[in-house]
Amino acid sequence: MSENPGEKDVTSNPFMGAAPARELDVPEPASARLTWSADDEKIDYEATAAHLDVVSDAGKLLGRMFSLSYVAVDESGAADPARPVTFAFNGGPGSSSVPINFGGIGPRRVATDGCGHVRADAAVEDNPQTVLRDTDVVFLDALGTGWSCVADDCEPASVFGVDGDADAFARAICAWLEENGRWSSPLYLFGESYGTVRNSVLMRILGERGVAVTGVVLLSAILDWVQVQPGEDLYYLGMMPTYAATAQWFGRAGKGVDPDEWFDRALEFTEDVLAPALLKGDRLDARREREVARKMSKFVGLAPEYLLAHHLRVDLADFRIALLADEGKICGRLDTRFASDALSPMQTSVEWVAGEDAAADAVEPAWTKAFRAFCREELGYRGAARYLSSNYEKVGTKWDWRHEEPGCSYKAEAPNVAVDIAVALRRNPTCKLAIIGGRYDAATTFWNVVHDMSCQYLSPELKERVSWYRYGCGHMAYTDAPTLEAMGEDLHEWYQRR
């Protein structure tokens, strides 16, 4: 608090970062001419750190969104207005875009160590699989995250919600296109995690505003939010194949079976055996329940008695704690292949268990450090001392999940943005969609996305516009080099496709 009670405390708004609340002063833009190279390829590009004004139709400033742009240039320093431009971001809600940038698809990448913990001084290298090979790319930090800030007279609730967030991003994207003269460029969206919810709504509302989208990438997607509601059987069904993949990874099940084949077997068991059993609830015969528990045990590596005690419904926190309990370990959430020492017996809070994730601890600090060094040392950008790489406590916990479902006359309390995707594709059948998921992602499980899209009953022609990619990875697919290479080549081919 300010020592002078008559002085406005500019840090009292938790969504502001370090920017003064009233004027929203932000640093001047900074840029540098750089070169990316890998093998025989080389791209000259301009990297620019700047803020975009997010302005309402009435001209009211809603906030300033931080952007880090990478634009390929020719010898004269000019950009190609016909080159695609991709707007990319992470999710949360409350996460900045650093992971997908310095971890995944940007021109620079922190070298990782498989499923090991990355050292703080890990090398930063040119990313051989960057999407810069095919498209200019603009990384955006959602308002309230990173160095993005909310205007002093803008109610945070108006931009911290499904619809308000998508509206703010649509305005920021249009601002960038206008400021950079790129309206003729093919437009792509690339979102991870909650960023896939954002993208699903964005691809619809941008079209409604006359901004056609050429392609959308959904990495580690979640579409129907009902699956996270308490007691929802769709949650347990989605977790089942991921549990099976994790148990196999740690040698507790599926020995000698190809991991993809094992995952496919788990998908089949989920739909043909587990789903009918769960739908019956306590009407399921006790003998049949024991039979299903025995079969499930062989997939997930937990004793049949444990599964029976949970009536075949095992929460993720319980699974993470139980699977490696005999080793004194707990497996990860974002990527269940990661593991760390078990938590203290007194640390039983579900929120704490969810937040203590070896997969995040292993990589995210190194990414943020590399990003800060890049902005300060190579671009000369003087950002605030604190960068909100994650602001979930102030943003995500206050998120407005209500969503105006297209074609309905009410706001759904639990959004199903698969409907938005279907509407957008019907309106723009030339748009293409890439859906990417991993076997070891327990945050946004693969089965649920397949289920949600199948319930949209797209025509065969529209289904052909949807490309599916499943890898042996977790939530952050780019963490391990083999997956990054496979995904990079698949995306390279996807960007070339008409």
From TrEMBL:
Residues 1-10 have a biased composition (Basic and acidic residues). Gene3D superfamilies: alpha/beta hydrolase (3.40.50.1820). Pfam families: Peptidase_S10. It comes from the Bacteria. InterPro entries: AB_hydrolase_fold (IPR029058), Peptidase_S10 (IPR001563). Signal peptide: none annotated. This is Peptidase S10. It comes from Paratractidigestivibacter faecalis. The lineage of its organism: Bacteria, Bacillati, Actinomycetota, Coriobacteriia, Coriobacteriales.
